[in-house]
Amino acid sequence: MIGQVFEFVNKYHMIHSGDKVIVGVSGGADSVCLLFVLMELKKDLDFEVMVVHVNHGLRGEESDQDQYFVEHLCKTLDLFCMSVNVSAEDYGKEKGISTEEAGRELRYEAFEQACEKYGGNKIATAHNENDVSETVLLNLIRGSGLRGLKGIDPIRDHIIRPILCLTRDQIENYLENKQISYRTDRTNFEKEYTRNKIRLDVLPYMENHINAKAISHIAHTARHISQAEAYLQRVAHKKSKEIVIEQDPWVIVIDTERLKKEEDIIQQYILRNCVGMVSNQLKDISYHHIESLRMLNDNQVGKKVTLPYGIYGEKGYDTLKIYREKTKSNQQGTNGKSEKREEHKEDTLSVVVPGTYRFQDFCITFSLEDVETAKIQENKYTKWFDYDTMKFGLLVRTRRPKDYLVIDRQGSKKKLKSYMIDEKIPRQLRDGIPLITDGSHILWVIGYRISEEYKVTKSTKNILKIQVDGGNTHGNN
Q1: How far apart are CA 330 and CA 58, in angstroms?
Q2: For 65-81, what is each residue's pLDDT tens digit?
């Protein structure tokens, strides 16, 4: 089993020499298995491990016993453990979300805090094949496109899932054979949650009465769907260049005649991506929203549809306009200073290449170019990078502690804060400058400079082109 995980980790380049991996350990079978597997991998790979345990305060004394178990386990393994105590129930009420979702948000917040405080650059979670199958079925039942049916990615940004290749039976057998104890959360057996019903009733029935390898087959299919979804995204992005005739952070105008020539599924992808560029989020955008936009093609001029986040679609004579109305709270103020937007709640965007994203008032396009035909030239708001040197997944965000650049060919690092001071960037502007990042390593301080480590060289095989529109509010002119 260790060999299976080692092969999986290498396949997706999850862990590199010198990494510091923050491991989320609840005390349950999955996370305890993950911890022991990583300790085995450490014998061959040179990386550090640190544990974070989050006590959600939901089960009283049982939660406290889970915390004690994890802390004691870490002592026996000579590992540092950071325990965080929160109230998922109170947080959920405050945010208007479920306790389950609140717990998830609080866990990842704790993992990120540990990364910043202790210099971690990877977060390892204990998702497995059963989780993938549960997610696929849950999304299928709720109604989902291919994106929801691809399950759980092995890597997302700097979050890695090393045991995603294992079933829960493999995990429990491993712990039993090694005589490793773990805690059992009784809430996992409460059927109030839809996911628990799938876990406890649906999947066991499928395994026992339909196909013994149902879980692995679903997970395997999800990986194929993930590849298909990525391909369709690439096709849609390429076609968008021909179909989108006008674009800024607030409005996208589409040539409807050209759009109609594409297959229905490509039309859906193009429209969904356009909505995402204008709204900066897609969480509540459903298939029916996208279809309502697509059906505008056959409606009379002036016909409108309304989508979440204040987004509108409007039919023109031979165009479809997707736009968000500007209000006093989301447009540029009369005094020249950018006022706070109601819709912009996040300062981080995950990037899938190729793709176009809206961040603040910027439209940022990521595309891959052939190394033989790429025309690299000096341009303030278009940059070219060695795509194969990127390790953790691209983000568009604002600055965080531990951010740095490589400033010369010898690999010398400089903290972003020091760079901004040296460049005499006013303090009041520093938190708002958009960055393209690979973990804590800054590819590009937009409007300023890029990191030496990502520059295109003679050995470069794949080139990433990043183009920024609307970027004249930052940087040196």
Answers
A1: 38
A2: 999 999 999 999 999 99
Residue 283: what pLDDT? 67
**Do 83 and 71 touch, CB atoms closer than 8 A?**
yes
Residues 261-266: contacts with CB within 8 Å, 24+ apart?
264/294, 265/232, 266/232, 266/235, 266/236, 266/239
pLDDT digits (tens, 9 = 90+) for 291-325: 888 888 777 788 888 888 788 899 988 899 998 87
Quickly count: other Cβ atoms within 10 Å of residue 436's Cβ: 25
CA triplet 219, 223, 228: central angle to 5 degrees? Answer: 140
Residue 149 per-residue DSSP state = H
Give the dihedral of Cα atoms 377, 378, 379, 385; nearest 10 deg: 70
Q: What pLDDT is recorded for position 343?
A: 37
pLDDT level of residue 411 (50, 70, 90 thresholds)? confident
Residues 408/414/417/419 CA torsion (nearest 10 deg): -30
> How would you class 179 by CB atoms within 10 Å of its CB: exposed for 0-12, middle for 13-18, buried for 19 or more?
exposed
Please give the torsion angle defined by the CA atoms of residues 295, 301, 303 and 306, in that order, rounded to the nearest 10 degrees.
70
Residue 429 identity (one-letter amino acid)? L
Q: Spell out the residues 6+ positions from residue 45 whose beta carbon is closer than 8 angstroms to its own.
A: 15, 16, 17
Q: Tell me the average pLDDT across 421-435.
A: 86
Give the angle subtended at the CA of 309 by the CAs of 268 and 240, to the nearest 5°. Answer: 30
pLDDT score, position 470: 63
The closest alpha carbon to 265, from 145, 137, 356, 140, belongs to 145
The whole-angstrom distance between residue 172's C-alpha and the CA centroid of its chain comes to 29
Q: Where are the beta strands (DSSP E) in 316-460?
A: 319-324, 348-350, 355-359, 362-370, 382-386, 394-397, 404-406, 413-415, 435-438, 441-445
Copy the structure tokens of residue 288: 């029916």
Q: Please tell me the distance from the alpha carbon of residue 427 to that of residue 432, in angstroms, as a whole number.
A: 10
State the Cα angle at 346 between 344 and 352, rounded to 5°. Answer: 110
DSSP tag of 475: S
Residue 349 CA to residue 352 CA, distance in Å, equals 10
- Judge contact between 293 and 275, C-beta under 8 A: yes
In DSSP terms, which residues pair with 183 in a beta bridge? none
Q: Is residue 23 within 8 Å of residue 49, measured between CB atoms?
A: yes
Mean model confidence pLDDT for the chain:
85
Order of strands, edge to edge, in the sheet holding 48-55?
81-85, 48-55, 20-24, 122-124, 159-160, 155-156
Q: CA dist 250 to 277, 312, 324, 433, Å?
A: 8, 11, 5, 20
The CA distance from 351 to 357, in Å, is 8
